[in-house]
Amino acid sequence: MAARGPEAPSGRALRDAAENLFQELQGHFQALTATLNLRMEEMGGRIEDLQKNVNDLMVQAGIESSAQEQVARPY
Question: Does the CA dihedral 61-64-65-68 come out positive or negative?
């Protein structure tokens, strides 16, 4: 039993270090998640803008009706 005495404080220190590391990793994960969500929203807006610009160009080129027919007609 004497051999287990010194291991108890070391075990607690290891558990505390693991808990601190887990909390740190969780904080980094939450920050990364927030960053990714923001970038996905930005990309979604850019895709919508691009789609609008492509549609405007198709109208200017006079090919809007043929493009809509291709989308509506499955192959």
Answer: positive
What is the rounded distance in angstroms from the CA atom of residue 47 to the CA atom of residue 41? 10
If DSSP codes are grouped into helix, strand and coil, which group holds residue 35? helix
* 14: confidence class by pLDDT, cuts 50, 70, 90: very high
DSSP 3: T
pTM for the complete prediction?
Answer: 0.56
55 Cβ neighbours under 8 A, 6+ residues apart: 64
Q: What is the mean pLDDT of the chain?
A: 84
Which of helix, strand or coil describes residue 59?
helix
Task: Break the chain into its structural domains and give their ranges.
Answer: 29-60
